[in-house]
Amino acid sequence: EELPSEDDQVPEGLCDEKELSVSLNQVDFHYNNGDIVLNPFDFHTEPGELIAIIGPSGEGKTTLLRLLLGLVQPCSGKAQLTGSTGSNYPLTAGTRNAFAYVPQGNSVFSGTIAQNLRLVAPNATDEDLRRALDIACALDFVEQLPNGIHYMLGAGGRGISEGQAQRIAIARALLRRAPILLLDEATSALDCETEKRLLDNLLNSDMINTCILVTHRPSSADFCHRTYEIRNGFCKEVINEC
């Protein structure tokens, strides 16, 4: 209750941007107790890239996503989006609608698959839903369920597997049509072949432009353009061996 209200006013022109780059320059972050989570670091993405963020648990990967979403502010440094026209937008609550976010926990709810998907796109047609499911490598198994997209799920996604729930959550995020997709361990229950196929689909989709993948699985970085590793409070770009 003591937290100040967020300034969630969307910057003028941001909604018209289809391609955005992200830049964090000499950004650092620590909580109020003074414990440093991230020492000063640089982080950059270009439109059309698939970026991996790897590192052990508790090292700051999710904190980096919170910085991108404007949920927390850097203690120093500059964090911003840059549009195709060269306009800069400092990362705040107001720039949050430039991102679609899939958390690592199960975010599938009681109701039909279609109802789950339309939580972010109430006016989406059935064909829109099927297209998003196809990109997320979910359409094949959904069409085999009784009633397809109208199959009723139980609380917490009861009735489908964890990997299937993750793919439905990714399909829902795609329906937001935000330029940048953030996946926070959102492919952890997928086998490597399915994950690669899904990431390939995302790169070739017009439903997003850039994808940032947080993962504990180092092999996932092999599918990405660039990789950042967070370890011992330091974030640095590493060279993909592939």
Q: Secondary-structure element sequence?
A: EEEHEEEEHHHEHEHEEE
Instruction: Give the overall pLDDT as a whole number.
Output: 93
Strand-pairing-aware structural class: alpha/beta
Strands, count = 12
Distance between the termini: 48 Å
What can be said about the biggest beta sheet? Answer: 6 strands, mixed
Low-confidence stretches: none
Name the helicity range.
Answer: 10-25%
Shape: globular
* Radius of gyration from CA coordinates: 18 Å
Lateral arrangement of strands in the main beta sheet? 6-9-10-3-11-12
Number of helices: 6
**Proportion of beta-strand residues:** 25-35%
Can you put this structure into words, describing what you see?
The chain is of the alpha/beta class. Helix content is 22%, strand content 27%. It contains 6 helices and 12 strands. It has helices at 61-68, 113-117, 126-135, 139-143, 162-174, 192-203, and strands spanning 20-30, 36-45, 50-54, 76-83, 88-90, 99-102, 111-112, 152-153, 180-184, 210-214, 226-231, 234-238. The chain has a 6-stranded mixed sheet, with helices on both faces. A hairpin with a 4-residue loop joins strand 4 and strand 5. It is globular and about 55 Å long. The model has no long low-confidence stretch (mean pLDDT 93).
